[in-house]
Amino acid sequence: MARIALILLLALAPTSASAAQIAVDVDRGTVLLADDADAVRRPASIVKLMTAYIAFAALEAGDVTEEDPVTVSKHAARQPPVKLRVRAGQTLPFGELLAAAIIGSKNDAATAVAEAVAGSEGAFVERMNAAATRLGMTNTRYANASGLPTPGQRTTARDTALLALALLTDYPERSQLFSERKTRAGGKGVTTTNPLFGRVPGAQGMKTGFTCGAGYNIAGLVERDGRRVLAITLGHKTKGGRLTAIKALIGKGFDALGSGSPLETGVAVPQAPPHIGACSGKAIAKAKESDAWIPPERPKPVRPAPVMTRRVVVLPKPAPPPPRTIVRKPPPPPPLSGWAAFLGAFSSEQEASARLAAVNALATKARTLPVKIFPRPRDGRRLGVIYGLTQPQARAICTLAKGIGQYCLTLGPKTLLNPKARWRR
After folding, report:
1. CB-neighbour burial class of residue 164 (10 A; exposed 0-12, middle 13-18, buried 19+)
2. How many CB atoms lie within 10 A of CB 262?
3. Cβ atoms of 106 and 92 closer than 8 Å
4. d(CA 391, CA 393)
5. Which of 101, 91, 186 is nearest to 146 (CA)?
6. Domains in the chain and their CATH numbers?
7. E-assigned strands of 90-160?
8. CB–CB of 205/214 below 8 Å?
9. Dihedral sign, CA of 231, 234, 239, 242?
10. What DSSP state is assigned to residue 181?
């Protein structure tokens, strides 16, 4: 009987999950190699990639600036380590908090950033999940801005790659913050958590993550000879195992450059993420403290005032408040991808919009092709592109544009995504 019971226990025990990983050619947007890329895992502080994406969008929109003072709430100050250890009521510049969250993975700083952008962490998380849907992150769900363990929070290596590429494509200048090794926030020194610096030639940073349940995660960016490889591996039981895996993945990625198929949205996976069990012995008790996410404080219920029965006064009903007008910002355009038609540099955004609309109207009555207008660093003139095309579509649009006397240049995916390409200068 004892032997039968032992066999049943072994049969019912969960099997250990293998690491999920993917390597991507950043400039071509192709998958170089993948292993369980759609396996669901707990993200831990990899979540802060999306925290940065939403914060960068708010900075670009002018909703916040890096100099804006942010008063730390009790909820932010109470987040478990790793933390900056700011006090409730303390005021720091938004840029310092964002840098502390990205470079040093500080949970209290990430929560303070979320509250500064959206008013509350819950509202910020709604933006995170909406952005994940737009980016095609089929198997990702966020529950907080820090990555601290919370039921339902999940991601995959493929989804993380989609997010990292969107960061590098949509916010190439701001994403350089991930390559910083140290900063200062609230008068304190903050150093990077990324183990690639000093160990892997050409390391450009990105983000690490760890909890007992998630294990050791990392998204690493490496550049060599003008080519960039993004490598992501999730769910290792040890730091050493994570470092060995990411180094091997990067090496294989560079060996496979020039191959692979485009990175696309993954298939939905219904399973819950496994518990990696990266802590054991005395470490478990200590890790539980940092694994417990602290929800926002709820306001105390207010007791209604006692009803006076001696005298009843009937007051007229107040006029209803005027209806609120909710102004919703349009969602940001999808990341640059595919082939594109570059229509040149223009003196103003209005001129660029008119030119792109005119050419776009020739190509399609629905006007569904994505366009992007952004300033050129050298002189501030606006660059206009129609993108997300196939090679024949890009050539056809340029033929139409030249037919009405407009300048047009066809751009391949590699040239389109290269921040140093001649058309951007």
Report:
1. buried
2. 13
3. no
4. 5
5. 101
6. 17-291 (3.40.710.10), 339-424 (3.30.70)
7. 91-93
8. no
9. negative
10. -
Tokens of 309: 């029965």
- Residue 153 to residue 144: CA distance in whole angstroms: 8
For residue 125, give every residue at least 6 positions away whose Cβ sits within 8 Å of its Cβ, in sequence order, or none.
114, 142, 143, 144, 145
DSSP letter, residue 216 = E
Separation between Cα atoms, residue 167 and residue 173, nearest integer Å: 10
What are the structure tokens assigned to 9, written together? 């226990």
Q: List C-alpha distances in Å: 388 to 246, 339, 342.
A: 31, 6, 12
Q: What are the structure tokens assigned to 417, written together?
A: 């995504």
Cα–Cα distance for residue pair 48/56, rounded to 1 Å: 12
pTM of the full predicted structure?
A: 0.67
**Which runs of consecutive H residues, i.e. helices, occur in 72-178?**
74-77, 94-103, 107-118, 121-134, 157-170
Please choose, from the candidates 85, 70, 238, 208, the residue with its C-alpha nearest in 3D space to the C-alpha of residue 147: 208
101 and 86 Cβ atoms separated by less than 8 Å: no
Work out whether the CA dihedral 175, 180, 182, 183 comes out positive or negative: negative
Tokens of 368: 């569904």
Could you identify the residue written with the tokens 């670009």? 60
Enter the tokens of residue 267: 């298939």
List the chain pLDDT tens, one digit each, 425 residues.
444 333 333 333 333 467 899 999 999 999 999 999 999 999 999 999 999 999 999 999 999 999 999 999 999 999 999 999 999 999 999 999 999 999 999 999 999 999 999 999 999 999 999 999 999 999 999 999 999 999 999 999 999 999 999 999 999 999 999 999 999 999 999 999 999 999 999 999 999 999 999 999 999 999 999 999 999 999 999 999 999 999 999 999 999 998 899 999 999 998 899 999 998 654 444 444 344 444 444 434 444 444 444 444 445 555 666 665 555 555 556 678 888 889 888 888 888 888 888 887 777 654 467 888 888 877 888 988 988 888 888 888 888 888 878 889 899 888 888 888 888 87
Cα–Cα distance measured from residue 84 to residue 92, given in angstroms and rounded to the nearest whole number: 11
Tokens 């669901």, residue? 40
Which SS3 state, helix, strand or coil, does residue 153 take?
Answer: coil
Alpha-carbon distance values, 394 to 384, 422, 423 (Å): 14, 18, 15
Quote the CA–CA distance of 226 and 259 in Å, as a whole number. Answer: 17
**Helix, strand, coil content of the chain in percent (nearest 5):** 35, 20, 45
Amino acid at 248: A
